UniProtKB/TrEMBL annotation:
PROSITE patterns: SEDOLISIN (PS51695), SUBTILASE_SER (PS00138). Secreted tripeptidyl-peptidase which degrades proteins at acidic pHs and is involved in virulence. Its cofactor is Ca(2+). One of its GO terms (cellular component) is extracellular region. Pfam families: Peptidase_S8, Pro-kuma_activ. It comes from Coniophora puteana (strain RWD-64-598). Binds 1 Ca(2+) ion per subunit. This is tripeptidyl-peptidase II. Residues 219-580 form the Peptidase S53 domain.
Length: 580
């Protein structure tokens, strides 16, 4: 049935406190949090006529099927390896069950909410709408308050729990943003580490690394990465089928002149006219007058290493703490936007993240499912593992902080290293490679063996501070300290796993080029391959720690570890492996 017909029956039915129970169904608690995110203080009751914009995430009953497909097409030993799903197939597997839209529309109509106020996501698995607080309070059987953030002066209308009529429990996965969780400017961004800043550990020179310029111990350039990762002068073909993308949030932009200057000075082989295209997601722009460290770093390395591959810069709109935006909704918007495209770049690098405690389990799962869907389309989705080791500085041992979406099992998360004799990245024990174990996502089977081995090595050290049954991250790593970056005509040093992700993504884009030229599919979701055979072509990093949370952090060791993952890339070896 069409939504409008249904709603016609109800017309402009008045909303008041006596809305009848939907289909006689009592309210059932959907989500609750014990407290708002740190730094946010509950104030007065929200004004009843304040308009809230929220998204109703409809359940995806076929997600299990999607996941099964994803695992098969990402497993090199499976007959379907590399047979990525089409846009229509994926949208169908993400769609709600057939009667969901109708049932939900019937419920919305009780509150006078009609089709004109609802917009649907690509897979029709989410509805975005607005309603005044007075209506939302009765829809969700809750009370909204104004929460303020003292440091920034921002305020948001939120609650700590909400309910839905029980008959909708199976139809609706979650509604957001309703609960008061928000990251506090901890969205990972590179740390400018220019003059006066901390100096990196001075790694011992590896006597066997004579091929790598010693200056790479202090200053990373594209040439350093080519030497360290055995890329040589491999140059991909512009039209071979490979491509690369970065995504940016929170008003991070890149200036074209900076990119040109960077290429001219650091990638002398670059043909004139190397460029990237800007694609706007939910109103994102790219203001040339305000380039940022993150965006500049991302384009200069992800694109600089892989030129002349087609390069796309997705700029996602929305500012922190605006009433209808959080980093989580930005991630949902990005995934939904990409799922609606017919052609997708096979690799996307994203250097953002937040503490896993700033999302509910339902929110984290929702976002992570979107990345699984992109993986099923054949995309390698890479995220940074965070820059604060196992947690923020603390005087005594406290529970380790987990970084999300790095902790999502359907993304490839990238930690950092430093030095030409590579060790885990760490500057003065203040900035170090993020890593650990999710408290939301259980350990996926593809990493069972390697993560179990590490847990055996660890024994009972840190027990109680981390969740040993959670998904271990990062999966891999790459250099992350002192990357030379051009920003608004100036040279800057940028540091963090933010630098490691575009580097690793660049190597994957080059491998996709090699495979495309050989008539093979692009690599798609990487983890099942990385943990089953890909690791053999990585440099295992066995030294260094990632301190934090009042501890020395984890140790890098032989095999997988929660700071450098399976290791850093060796392009020549990887190329041989993926062409075999
Ligand atoms: C739909 O909702 C909008 C805003 O709530 C209202 O202005 C409009 O009159 C409604 N339309 C119908 C057909 O009820
Ligand atoms: C998805 O793309 C189609 C065109 O292919 C467009 O009509 C539709 O509005 C898009 N959906 C969303 C949610 O952007
Ligand atoms: C929740 O619903 C119950 C009846 O189902 C009602 O008594 C109560 O006032 C509602 N609470 C809020 C906060 O709306
Ligand atoms: C250098 O290579 C030699 C021979 O392969 C090996 O024995 C030695 O351990 C290597 N040194 C280092 C520091 O890796
Ligand atoms: C790159 O693309 C942008 C936007 O299309 C354009 O303004 C700029 O001039 C281009 N740069 C080069 C070197 O072609
Ligand atoms: C871009 O940034 C500049 C400098 O802050 C500002 O003056 C200008 O209005 C911005 N342009 C747009 C289109 O927002
Ligand atoms: C872009 O950056 C260059 C420096 O690399 C600067 O000269 C130019 O003014 C910037 N563009 C804008 C529109 O601000
Ligand atoms: C937030 O809501 C406003 C209007 O309600 C809308 O214009 C804007 O696009 C929304 N932003 C996002 C990121 O959804
Ligand atoms: C540990 O992880 C498991 C698997 O994800 C989860 O079910 C459990 O709730 C977590 N426990 C804690 C204390 O976080
Ligand atoms: C990690 O390394 C430190 C320093 O070498 C050592 O004291 C500690 O025992 C190691 N941890 C494990 C689990 O071996
Ligand atoms: C980056 O830091 C290194 C090590 O301190 C230093 O040698 C180099 O000159 C710095 N580069 C820039 C652009 O500041």
């Amino acid at each position: 049935m069409k939504l409008s017909l249904l709603l016609g029956l109800v017309g402009a039915s008045l909303v008041n406190a006596d809305v009848p129970a939907f289909r006689g169904s009592p309210f059932k608690l959907k989500e609750s949090i014990s407290a708002p995110s740190t730094g946010w203080v509950k104030g007065s009751a929200a004004q009843l006529d304040t308009v809230l914009t929220f998204q109703i995430g409809l359940s995806r009953p076929r997600f299990g099927e999607l996941e099964q497909n994803l695992m098969e097409i990402s497993d090199p030993s499976h007959a379907r390896y590399g047979v990525h799903l089409s846009k229509d197939d994926v949208l169908e597997l993400m769609a709600p069950q057939s009667d969901t839209q109708e049932v939900v529309a019937e419920w919305l109509a009780l509150y006078g909410l009609n089709e004109t106020s609802v917009s649907y996501s690509s897979a029709k698995d989410a509805m975005t709408l607005s309603a005044p607080v007075r209506v939302a309070e009765s829809m969700f059987n809750t009370s909204f308050y104004v929460y303020s953030h003292a440091d920034s002066g921002d305020s948001l209308v939120r609650t700590t729990q909400y309910s839905l009529p029980e008959v909708l429990d199976d139809h609706i996965a979650l509604v957001q943003p309703l609960v008061m969780l928000a990251s506090l400017g901890q969205v990972a961004k590179p740390t400018p580490s220019s003059a006066g800043g901390p100096t990196p550990l001075t790694p011992t020179q590896d006597v066997n690394s004579t091929a790598v310029d010693p200056s790479c111990n202090y200053q990373i350039t594209p040439d350093c990465l080519r030497q360290l990762y055995n890329i040589g002068n491999y140059t991909p073909s512009a039209n071979g089928g490979s491509a690369i993308a970065v995504s940016e949030f929170e008003n991070e932009w890149a200036n074209f002149t900076d990119y040109d200057t960077f290429l001219a000075e650091n990638v002398p082989s670059a043909a004139a006219g190397s460029n990237f295209s800007i694609v706007s997601v939910t109103g994102g722009v790219n203001n040339q007058s305000e380039p940022g460290g993150e965006a500049s770093l991302d384009v200069q390395y992800a694109f600089g290493l892989t030129r002349p591959l087609p390069a796309t810069f997705y700029t996602v709109g929305g500012s922190p703490y605006s009433s209808n935006w959080t980093f989580s909704t930005g991630l949902l918007d990005l995934a939904d936007f990409l799922l609606n495209q017919t052609d997708l770049p096979p690799v996307i690098s994203t250097s953002y993240g937040e503490d896993e405690t700033t999302v509910t389990s339902a929110q984290a799962n929702r976002i992570c499912q979107g990345f699984a869907a992109l993986g099923a389309r054949g995309m390698s989705v890479l995220f940074s593992s965070g820059d604060y080791g196992v947690g923020y500085p603390s005087g005594s041992p406290v529970a380790f902080t987990v970084h999300f979406p790095a902790s999502c099992p359907y993304v490839t998360s990238v930690g950092m290293t430093t030095g030409i004799h590579e060790v885990a990245g760490n500057i003065d024990n203040e900035v170090s490679s993020g890593g650990g174990f999710s408290t939301i996502f259980p350990r996926p089977s593809y990493q069972d063996e390697q993560v179990s081995d590490y847990l055996t090595y660890l024994g009972d050290q840190y027990s109680g501070l981390y969740n040993s049954s959670g998904r271990g991250y990062p999966d891999v790593s790459a250099q992350g300290i002192n990357f030379l970056v051009e920003i608004y005509g100036y040279k800057s040093n940028e540091t963090g796993t933010s630098a490691s992700v575009p580097t690793f993504a660049g190597v994957i884009a080059l491998l996709n080029d090699a495979r495309s030229n050989a008539g093979k599919s692009t690599l798609g979701f990487l983890n099942p391959w990385l943990y089953s055979s890909g690791y053999s072509a990585l440099n295992d990093i066995t030294e260094g720690t990632n301190p934090g949370a009042g501890t020395n952090g984890f140790n890098a060791t032989k095999g997988w570890d929660p700071l450098t993952g399976l290791g850093t890339p060796d392009f020549a070896k990887l190329q041989a492996l993926v062409l075999a």
